[in-house]
Structure formats: structure tokens, C-alpha cells
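[job 0417] fold request received: 3-phosphoshikimate 1-carboxyvinyltransferase
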Amino acid sequence: MTSLKLATNNKSLTGEITIPGDKSISHRSVMFGSIAHGETRVTNFLPGDDCLSTISCFRNLGVTIEENGGELRILGKGFEGLTEPDEVLDVGNSGTTIRLLMGILAGRPFFSTLVGDESIAKRPMTRVTGPLSKMGTAIDGRKNGAFTPISIRGGKLNAIHYELPVASAQVKSALILAGLQAEGETTILEPANTRDHTERMIRKFGGKISKEGQTIRVEGGQRLSAASVNVPGDISSAAFFLVAGAVVPNSEIVLKNVGLNPTRTGIIEVLKNMGAELEIIQTEDDSFEPAGDLVIRTSSLNGTVIEGELIPKLIDEIPVIALLATQAEGKTVIKDAEELKVKETNRIDTVVQELKKLGADIEATEDGMIIHGRTKLHGGVVSSHGDHRIGMMLAIASLLCEGEVTLENPEAIAVSYPNFFTHLESLIH
Ligand code: S3P
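[job 0417] inference complete; emitting C-alpha cells
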């Protein structure tokens, strides 16, 4: 573990950056390329640690994947082309890899074991192992299938109707991937709209899936065909620079190629509600994944309330939204966000603990946090806790701090944004 001394305040942020590929879509491009028939090409793939874990798992399942600086060539042979791995499948830090992979392996007639790092070992898996058992797969793990290591002996699956107890795209996607291999039609009721990249990807690969009201329907036994996937930039990565541009004095940042899927744009709604000077230039509006360029300027901001159905549309952005709120006039309340407790870290605790060290007026609640602004931040020694989004939020916070900030364990940032510091430095003037 290393630590990094970060730039202090009195700087402005100006210039243009191209946001790296979306993490959720990059994972799915590898998975769908592997379970489809034929040669899939992926461009603007995110070569972050999490997505590289997905590639390594699928290589262990017998799929040929060539990776060359963000471009992939995947030789898919259908679900039936996957073969029993000789090694334990290691998902590293990636919740998306393990949960979606469970859905794929549930229908495969062989044995596999899944493990990950310390953080993965604490994250709840019953939400996936429970419904997959109901579909007929032999799946188990520590504490009755609640935690890694997970073992699966897949096989014939029955379609089920399942009402998701939590709004989770990972759980929904695992059940869709199992449903594609099941006998009959699987229906999934989601309590709120969550990111729909899996559904869009199925259509891209020639499959069918529908949604009426909150119910998703998918038929088993579909044959998917290879596709060309161009991954848009990750709005969850762009979020750090959107916040930075809004709060650092005399700033104007252009963010190129940001994914604007409406299930992910909660951060834009919040910035607008708080009064940010944000311009959106939509450049790509195809049926796959919309994308566009964003321009953000230093803004005067007011507090807001973030709750309900907005939460799944910005769940990963809450750490940096908390920082944003420290620079807004008045009170910001974030509620209905208990899912934060089971992310890479307990993000209610890690956000509150680390921002307090820099002088923020922030308190944890049962399902979120309350922030009073506007506060001057000061220097200190802070930690990412091994969580990429906490690390990036703190690096952005350092731009506002009077005094030096030392960030412990900055390496975690490579999970989703390997060139984060290069981009940040290129904007500082
Ligand atoms: C993701 C879904 C979300 C999100 C995660 C990526 C996905 O998790 O927090 O970073 O790619 O499906 P949940 O489904 O647990 O909410």
C-alpha cells in the first residue's frame, strides 16, 4: 500500500478529456461476446482491473479473447462452448463479475468455484444464490451461500417469476443470464428501474427481451450472435470531473463521449437541481447506448434532497455527490440509499469518516447522509479504504483543501479509471 501527496487549492481546472469506457458495459461486452456465436469486436473497452478480471475468468472458461489497448476480439461459441475451468475463478474486487457470472454458470453442466478479494468476501451473495437455487442449480457458499467462496454445479434450469427484494442491476442481470438458459419464460419484477445495459446488450446480440411496467420477460433457449460493440465513456467516471468542474473556482471542463443511458443520468439531474452550469451535447443516440459531450463550469450551488427512484440512477456517484454537497449552500439530504452499505466498502461509513477528516459537516444516517454546506475543507491524511470511488472522491476533494492531503492506497483507483491521475493533472492550470 502506498500513499500519495495531492495538489492543493488555488488552481483552476480547464481543458478537455475523453472519458474511458463504461465499466458496466465493458463487463457485459466480454460476457455476451463469450456466450454468443461468432467473433465479437469491442472498441473503447475499459482496461481497468475489474474488467480485466472478467476477461481472465472467461479465458479460464475456455473462451479465446484477444485484448489490445482497449480493443477486444472474442471468439464466442455460445453458452455450450464454455468449458469446466481448471482453476478457481478469481473476480478480484468486482461485484459485477461474480454476480453476473453466477447467472451464466448456473446453466452450465460443470463445476466451478468463484473467489474474490477481501471486499468481495464481505459482500452479500444470497440475493443471487437464493433465486438461482430456486431455478434448480446446485450453488453454495460460506454461510449457506451468503458469501464467497461460491461453488456451482450448473445444469438444467426452470424459468421462475422473481420479485427482486432490492433494486439491483447485478441481481436482475444474473437472473436474465440464467433465464436465457432456462426452460420457459423467466419474469423479473424490479422495484425501481435499474441500469438496463444487459437488456440493451441482449438486443444488440440479436436476442429478445421485453419490459412491461416493472416486469422483465426473457425466453430461455435463445441463440445469440456476435456483434460489434463500441463502449461509451463511463458517466460514473465522468462524475468526478463534473463535480470538480462545478466546485473548483474558474473552471471549465469538456468531457467527451459520456454515456447518457437514462438509467444512469441521476448525477446530471442532481447537478441541475443544485444549480450547476452544465451543458449537454448529445452526439450518439442509437438504440444501443446514447452518449454525448458535457461541458461543466464553476457554479454556485444549493443543497438538495436525493431519494427514492433517483437513487439507483446515481448509486455509484453518491461519494462524489457528498463532496459536491459540502460546497453547496444549505442542507443536502441523501436517503433511501442503504445499498451503499454493501458496495466495495460501506460507503456511508467511508464517505462520512473521510470527509470529516477534511473538515466537512457531514453525518451518517440509517439510509444515507446529511451534509451542511458550504464548508472550507482543510488538509489531512485520508484513505481510499481500497475503494476506487472513495479514492477518486478524495483526490477531487484535495483540490479544495487548504493544506496538504495525503491519500493512502490510491492504487484502488485502477479498478475503474486507470488513467484518472493523468486526466486530472492535464486539467490543472
Ligand atoms: C452494476 C450495478 C450496481 C453498481 C455497480 C455496477 C452493474 O450494483 O453499483 O457498480 O454493472 O450491474 P447493484 O446491482 O448491486 O446495485
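[job 0417] notes: The two ends are 29 Å apart (CA to CA). The mean pLDDT is 97.
[job 0417] exit 0
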